[in-house]
Structure to design on (748 residues):
């Protein structure tokens, strides 16, 4: 978050922007908070990002954002990418797996101590020093060049602000002409410098590109171009700056058409002692080394696959991954290499290149072998982007390669969790609200409250929620409906926000609803089991309580307790008061569960005793059992309702936990949390839950408000998904409404 705070400095009126001219952030979620748990953090993000967008022309600050990649489970890399603006080109965003000399993904903690990334950052800092001032340079062009050199594309040479394009090729050196289209040279203990020259005139007629690679990873210039030369030249154009550094080689690919003035290509082999390296060059046609591989369909579930076979003796291949550009797509690529007559260990490099964002990843394989590569995205392909994702294969000419791609269903679910996992609490709450509404309606229609699990299975259906959200999203495309929406001061639909961020998955809402319902079910099972265990502990430690003879909605201590909790909320932290209210409510339910268990045990004993006196007091016994039986049923109905309320209240407590944790960590500095996002909610929730803690189903069966109350949870469940999936702090606002109406049923 320090990276976001640094960007926020610029929004301060009295802050002098010229105090800083370089900002490097690591794993900072610049786009949006990971979990929007209160409105203050979302307002803060909106203020910072809007300022940077509106004032991009005037911000003279070079910014680099480094993401951790797929190993960072806390902050997904898509959130770290700074917004791309046409008039703000001094911002770079890159994933650590694409950073030269790093080439690894990091988790959220290791990104700050990953040695490879540390060294890359330190090298960049040294190159950013101005030779005259001994400080970070003020030149924005140089800053961007240094960051590009170290974090985007490294040419295997030390950074130079103004590199010499023309190099002298003089001295006592051998000049060896090479006329073949494919050439390999193994250098070992070379005593003389050698220049290998490749005449381009004849190759231009047949080939479109030339590719060269060297396993000597020094920082000297190694490849040049000669202009109008016959066999040797005194000066050459240094093409080494066009090369790219990879883990085991440095490589260069040139399109011959782009260099019409070059007559020769020159590869330089220095004199070395005790070292061995290999230099390869080959001329090729682009269409012979570019292979199109359409990815499999999303719903093939890995049952089908597509493959290509590379059986030519090339050194470099581009595999175009067609129809791949959405974040919900995930595939497994399997590369099987088979080599003939190979005695030494050979290394192949497979590089996944994403042209619309710097999120490349590399895989190194010792061939022959079978290598598995995960294929998924951090950033979706923009609508105006025509380039496709590439699998660049740096291969051995002695091996054949078979590339197979198939859909990975497990990784698709992983992408759903990565991009939409934060919305799960909204879907869990929506499912519980639907079950809650079903219980209230069954109480109104039949006089009895059904089990939570039964109502969850019956009521929590996606078709009760999703069609309404989709309908609203469709209608907002019409101007008249959008104007009506704005007149009513309704917030923007979360589905529209996700669509603008290219985060809409097919059937993602259905998947999340299924996960949400499962979580709601197991959460309900856990809460009911916990209540039973606590009631058993209560009975073991204290004299068994009895079921209440008369039902009092407002006891003598209730107003006092409510006032105390409201004062606690006002003077300390709203989340703390909500937690205390939750504990009070759980205490009341545990007490009721213990009373019911005691009653059932005593009822069994009384039933055995009454058989002896059945003839003497038959009428009296029947009436007594009938009365107690009704009382037990009411208690069981109340417990079922209370268990559902506990589940709703649990999620309110969980969503307010960050405020409580923040308050506790800073308690030694101040006693009152300000601003407090949970305080308004606490003021409403405390009296509501105090009343509900003393509410039994028998007291609300005849309420005139019960039918209306039972109808509210359905539209509120829709509202939770429509407005709370991307703004979790809104979820409790939808939950307390049916709870408040439930409490009011005691009085109406």
């Amino acid at each position: 978050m320090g990276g976001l705070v640094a960007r926020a400095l610029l929004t301060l009126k009295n802050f002098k922007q010229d105090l800083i001219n370089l900002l490097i952030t690591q794993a900072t979620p610049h786009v949006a908070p990971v979990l929007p748990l209160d409105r203050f953090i979302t307002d803060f993000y909106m203020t910072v990002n809007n300022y940077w967008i509106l004032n991009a022309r005037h911000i003279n600050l070079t910014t680099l954002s480094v993401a951790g990649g797929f190993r960072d489970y806390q902050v997904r890399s898509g959130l770290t990418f700074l917004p791309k603006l046409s008039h703000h080109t001094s911002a770079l965003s890159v994933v650590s797996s694409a950073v030269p000399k790093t080439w690894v993904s990091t988790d959220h903690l290791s990104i700050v101590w990953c040695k490879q990334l540390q060294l890359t950052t330190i090298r960049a800092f040294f190159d950013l020093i101005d030779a005259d001032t001994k400080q970070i340079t003020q030149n924005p062009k140089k800053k961007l060049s240094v960051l590009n050199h170290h974090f985007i594309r490294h040419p295997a040479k030390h950074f130079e602000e103004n590199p010499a394009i023309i190099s002298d090729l003089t001295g006592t050196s051998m000049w060896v002409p090479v006329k073949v289209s494919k050439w390999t040279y193994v250098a070992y203990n070379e005593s003389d410098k050698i220049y290998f020259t490749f005449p381009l005139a004849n190759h231009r007629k047949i080939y479109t590109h030339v590719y060269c690679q060297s396993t000597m990873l020094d920082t000297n210039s190694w490849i040049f171009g000669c202009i109008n030369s016959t066999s040797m030249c005194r000066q050459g154009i240094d093409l080494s700056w066009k090369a790219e550094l990879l883990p085991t080689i440095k490589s260069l690919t040139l399109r011959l058409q782009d260099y019409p003035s070059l007559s020769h290509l020159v590869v330089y082999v220095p004199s070395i002692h005790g070292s061995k390296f290999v230099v390869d060059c080959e001329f090729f046609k682009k269409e012979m080394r570019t292979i199109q591989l359409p990815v499999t369909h999303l719903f093939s579930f890995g049952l089908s696959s597509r493959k290509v076979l590379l059986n030519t003796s090339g050194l470099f291949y581009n595999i175009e991954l067609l129809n791949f550009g959405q974040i919900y797509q995930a595939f497994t690529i399997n590369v099987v290499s088979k080599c003939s007559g190979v005695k030494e260990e050979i290394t192949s490099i497979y590089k996944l290149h994403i042209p619309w964002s710097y999120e490349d990843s590399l895989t190194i394989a010792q061939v022959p072998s079978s290598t598995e590569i995960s294929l998924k995205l951090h950033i979706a392909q923009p609508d105006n982007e025509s380039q496709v994702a590439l699998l660049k294969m740096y291969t051995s000419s002695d091996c054949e390669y078979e590339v197979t791609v198939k859909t990975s269903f497990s990784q698709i679910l992983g992408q759903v969790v990565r991009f939409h996992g934060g919305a799960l609490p909204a879907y869990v709450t929506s499912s519980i609200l639907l079950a809650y509404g079903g219980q209230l309606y069954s109480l109104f229609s039949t006089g009895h409250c059904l089990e939570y699990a039964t109502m969850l299975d019956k009521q929590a259906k996606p078709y009760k929620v999703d069609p309404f959200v989709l309908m609203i999203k469709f209608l907002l495309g019409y101007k008249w409906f959008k104007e009506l929406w704005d007149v009513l001061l309704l917030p923007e639909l979360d589905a529209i926000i996700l669509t603008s961020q290219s985060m809409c998955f097919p059937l993602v809402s259905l998947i999340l609803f299924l996960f949400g319902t499962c979580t709601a079910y197991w959460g309900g099972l856990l809460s009911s089991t916990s209540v039973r265990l606590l009631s058993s502990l209560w009975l073991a430690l204290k004299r068994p309580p009895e079921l209440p003879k008369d039902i009092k909605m407002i006891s003598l201590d209730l107003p006092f307790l409510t006032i105390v909790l409201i004062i606690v909320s006002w003077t300390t932290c709203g989340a703390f008061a909500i937690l205390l209210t939750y504990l009070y409510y759980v205490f009341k339910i545990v007490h009721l569960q213990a009373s019911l268990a005691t009653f059932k045990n005593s009822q069994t004993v009384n039933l055995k005793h009454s058989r002896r006196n059945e003839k003497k007091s038959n009428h009296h016994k029947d009436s007594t059992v009938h009365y107690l039986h009704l009382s037990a049923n009411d208690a069981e109905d109340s417990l079922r309702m209370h268990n559902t309320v506990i589940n709703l209240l649990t999620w309110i407590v969980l969503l307010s936990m960050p405020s409580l944790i923040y308050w506790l960590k800073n308690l030694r500095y101040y006693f009152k949390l300000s601003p407090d996002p949970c305080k308004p909610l606490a003021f409403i929730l405390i009296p509501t839950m105090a009343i509900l803690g003393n509410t039994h189903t028998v007291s609300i069966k005849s309420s005139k408000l019960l039918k209306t109350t039972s109808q509210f949870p359905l539209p509120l469940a829709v509202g939770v998904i429509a407005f709370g999936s991307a703004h979790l702090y809104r979820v409790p606002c939808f939950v307390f409404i049916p709870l408040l109406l439930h409490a009011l049923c005691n009085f109406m």
Observations:
- The first helix runs from residue 2 to 8.
- The mean pLDDT is 86.
- Residues 197 and 266 are 5 Å apart (CA to CA).
